[in-house]
Specification:
heterodimer; A: alpha+beta; 60s Ribosomal Protein L30, Chain: A; globular; disordered N terminus; B: mainly beta; Rossmann fold; six-stranded mixed beta sheet; four-stranded antiparallel beta sheet; 3 helices
Chain lengths: 165, 416
């Protein structure tokens, strides 16, 4: 019995020491943040409002191995920034960078992140509060098209807008 | 004349130790080996399954010309079957069921009709037959006095994309024959063994608000959170003593390489560049190798951990976006064709940091995620070709490549 209790304590110490680090680059609140978003997801009105707003936000597409905003994407980005600043101003924007299937290594993930960073910078330049924007790279893990064509690959090189309460 | 032979000898010794030199036509000089099955228990389908696994393992050893003809024989017969009488080596084995359904194998290795090696193996059940096969090949290799193939007994961990934002993390043997899904259902990527014993692993979870680095203990099944970062959070390498990690983080949107101490739980930034720095690998205790686009395209660089001086490591290729390091050798992935979407896009190359030699290791398909074995004897990599995802293994000193296809899904990343 004593051994069981000691084991439990040892496990608890491990878990809590992993969650409460105060290192600046470490975000110990990640778990809590997830919990609170789950709690909010119970609100159907919020969910439907977010779904409606996300439909107004267009994905931004990129060229192969590039993370600069194309000239043909400027108009969509301006509209996105407008929606984020007005109708979605009380929500957090999660920018999800995505890549085509050419490479699953870290560099490809970084490319997805740089795309999200470029969009974030453009949003900030348009007056969006930087603290309301988070970013993640999905690499090649969230394709919208799986055909082996150039047109399909171009649809996967994009940044999506997700809204969080 | 004597001087000429001395020079020739010196030349052969110098180049024999360099893995960047291609080995050509060595196959003609390899000794022949045949395999004889003496099993009575188990059905024919399983017998053939085990036989094929063993022949594949012996082929991967790359030290024999393995005869692929299936032969039956009595285990205690003093001579090899007549068809194998001219073989230099004959491996005979017998599978049988032991206590509580255990799977047992006995091995005899014949040379010139005399037994030179005997071994016994046991597993809980015959589902683990591939590990017995790997162990048998390992022992034969040891008997032959070849450099160790310890990697053959190591487990491979990989994540595979199943559907958008869904992955599975799977533990397998090096041939993907055995597969056990450890985590299913979430968006979990970049698994990395946490120690040499392979009892726990790190992985990145993208299911939270921010990318989060977690560690899962395989024995207890418990997961703990290490840290999270906006943008990216990937464990790229683990030090030999398991106390230090190289991680890629991007707290402000700029991916850089950080050093994380598992004892103090503190991290410190190593690289500092406004573009992309990712994929840190320990070259030695004080030096890391990483991929950066600081020249305008992805390439491999090195940096002392406590110094800002950066050195370019690769001078060939215009898009070298992944690498693995072992001693003086670096294997890296390069995009070779100017057409971004041609059929021959990404290949693996090997360089030595002490010479100028470059050796191309693959020729077709998308070859990526190179990973040296701990002893540097072999390189494991992912190959995607014609909609098929495979794990490949390159025997550097034997100039041979072997592929083991994945039945479904696409491999995202793996560690060995």
């Amino acid at each position: 019995m004593k051994n069981i209790i000691l084991s439990s304590v040892a496990v608890a110490v491990l878990v809590f020491s992993g969650c409460s680090s105060k290192e600046p680059s470490v975000d110990g609140s990640a778990t809590q943040a997830t919990d609170s978003s789950n709690a909010m997801s119970g609100s159907e009105s919020m969910e439907s409002r977010i779904a409606g707003l996300e439909k107004k936000l267009s994905s931004i597409y990129f060229d192969f191995d590039k993370f600069n905003i194309r000239s043909d994407m400027q108009s969509a980005l301006t509209t996105d920034a407008s929606v984020v600043k007005t109708e979605a101003s009380d929500l957090t924007v999660k920018l999800e960078g995505n890549c085509d299937e050419w490479g699953s290594d870290e560099y490809n993930f970084a490319l997805g992140l740089k795309r999200a960073t470029t969009v974030k910078d453009a949003l900030i330049a348009s007056g969006v509060d930087a603290s309301k924007v988070t970013m993640v790279s999905n690499g090649e893990g969230n394709p919208v098209c799986s055909d082996k064509t150039k047109d399909c690959w171009s649809k996967n090189r994009r940044v999506d807008f997700k809204l969080l309460p | 004349m004597k001087i000429f032979f001395m020079w020739l000898l010196a030349l052969s010794i110098t180049f024999a130790a360099d893995a960047t030199i291609d080995v050509i036509k060595k196959v003609d000089t390899l000794p022949s080996l045949a395999v004889e099955d003496a099993s009575v228990k188990y059905d024919n389908a399983f017998k053939m399954q085990f036989y094929k696994m063993l022949v594949a393992d012996l082929n991967v050893l790359s030290i024999f010309n393995v005869d692929g003809s299936y032969r039956n024989v009595d285990f205690d017969a003093s001579n090899v079957v007549v068809e194998n009488k001219d073989m230099q080596y004959v491996l005979r084995y017998k599978m049988f069921e032991g206590d509580a359904g255990s799977f047992n194998v006995e091995l005899k290795l014949f040379k010139a009709n005399g037994v030179v090696l005997t071994k016994s193996y046991k597993a809980n059940k015959n589902d683990f037959y591939m590990f017995i096969s790997h162990a048998m090949a390992y022992d034969v290799n040891e008997y032959m006095g070849e450099p160790s193939v310890e990697w053959m007994k190591k487990k491979v961990i990989f994540s595979k994309n199943t559907t958008p934002k869904k992955t599975e993390i799977v533990v397998s043997d090096y041939t993907l024959t055995y597969q056990h899904t450890i985590i299913a259902g979430g968006f979990n990527i970049f698994p990395k063994w946490a120690n040499q014993e392979q009892t726990s692993f790190y992985f990145t979870s993208l299911d939270s608000k921010k990318p989060t680095l977690k560690q899962l203990d395989i024995k207890t099944g418990q997961t703990k959170v290490l840290m999270s970062s906006d943008g990216m959070m990937i464990c790229s390498d683990v030090s030999a003593d398991s106390t230090k990690l190289l991680v890629t983080m991007a707290p402000s949107g700029q991916p850089d390489v950080y050093l994380y101490n598992t004892n103090t739980k503190k991290s410190s930034k190593i690289t500092n560049y406004s573009g992309i720095d990712v994929g840190g690998q320990f070259l030695d205790d004080n030096t890391v190798v990483f991929v950066s686009n600081r020249l305008g395209y992805p390439n491999v660089f090195s940096q002392k951990i406590n110094s800002g001086a950066v050195e370019q490591m690769i001078f060939y290729g215009k898009s070298n976006s992944a690498c693995s390091v072992n001693g003086e050798y670096i294997v890296y992935k390069a995009r070779e064709s100017s057409d971004s979407f041609s059929g021959n896009t990404f290949n693996l190359h090997l360089i030595s940091t002490k010479t100028d030699f470059i050796r191309r290791l693959t020729a077709t398909g998308v070859n990526e995620f190179p990973r040296f074995s701990k002893d540097g004897d072999a390189i494991l990599f992912i190959k995607n070709y014609m909609s098929q995802s495979s794990i490949g293994i390159i025997r550097l000193n034997h100039d041979k490549n072997y592929l083991f296809p994945l039945k479904s899904g696409k491999i995202q990343s793996m560690d060995w």
